[in-house]
Specification:
0% strand; 257 residues; transmembrane; mainly alpha
Length: 257
């Protein structure tokens, strides 16, 4: 209860930090927030041209399949990377005034989530152009996004702690994200990979978030209870581990930043 009261006390500051991060992201850009729509659209056009021409995947409505996975993984990649740098980048402020330190990684993740919501407009445009069938299940699309947000907050908290004590994570995390992306069926169907790779993919949390999102918006299916439980399990474990590691180490930050 004490942690919740403390969080509520600083909600205005958190809101200001999120607004600041969004302004900084598109500062001096001519198109500004429009890039939140253009980026996923342009990437989808390039990747669709490459993969549908060379690999001939038998996937109905490939542009929506590709864009739905790409948007979710881009959010995860961007949010956790910016959260990782948040404590180091705010070192001078942390040393001068008291602010709950979790505000810094949390604001970065929430600002990336706002960008994700803008990107959904691009997905809606592609769905309308490709004449996809809409059903009532699409109204549940916020559920996998919520699971992914909680999962990303947990990973972001862990990474923000690790990089304070191990600067090499700044460089290593990009490599890990690249491997993570290729082990998530974003641009290929899972049935084309060998069995041993499927085993790895089934242990990848991002697979379940993407799969649940696609079932709702692309396949017009209600996600199974098992899929919901997998998403809930991964997001809960990530958040609990992230909070534990962060609170155990936050008082040591000033000695290392």
């Amino acid at each position: 209860m004490r942690y919740f009261t403390n969080f509520w006390k600083y909600k205005e500051l958190l809101t200001q930090f999120v607004a600041r991060d969004l302004k900084l992201k598109y500062r001096r850009s001519v198109l500004g927030y429009l890039w939140s729509l253009l980026n996923p659209l342009l990437m989808m056009m390039v990747l669709t041209a490459v993969f549908s021409s060379f690999f001939k995947f038998d996937i109905p409505n490939y542009p929506v399949y590709l864009l739905s996975g790409q948007i979710l993984f881009s959010f995860f990649s961007e949010s956790t990377t910016t959260a990782m740098n948040s404590i180091l980048g705010s070192g001078s402020l942390i040393k001068k005034v008291y602010i709950p330190k979790y505000i810094f990684p949390l604001s970065r993740i929430l600002s990336s989530f706002v960008t994700l919501l803008f990107s959904l407009v691009a997905l809606l445009i592609v769905m309308l152009i490709t004449d996809i069938q809409f059903s009532a299940t699409i109204l549940l699309f916020p559920l996998p996004l919520f699971y992914l947000l909680i999962f990303s907050i947990g990973i972001g908290l862990i990474m923000s702690v690790l990089v304070v004590f191990f600067r090499d994570m700044l460089h290593l995390y990009g490599v890990l994200l690249s491997a993570w992306m290729y082990l998530t069926p974003i641009f290929y169907p899972i049935n084309i990979v060998p069995d041993f790779v499927k085993t790895i993919i089934y242990s990848n949390p991002m697979y379940y978030f993407v799969e649940m999102f696609r079932e709702l918006i692309l396949y017009n299916q209600m996600p199974s209870l098992q899929l919901n439980l997998m998403c809930l399990m991964f997001s809960s474990i990530s958040l609990l581990v992230g909070l534990f590691i962060f609170y155990k180490n936050q008082n040591k930050f000033v000695l290392h930043i």
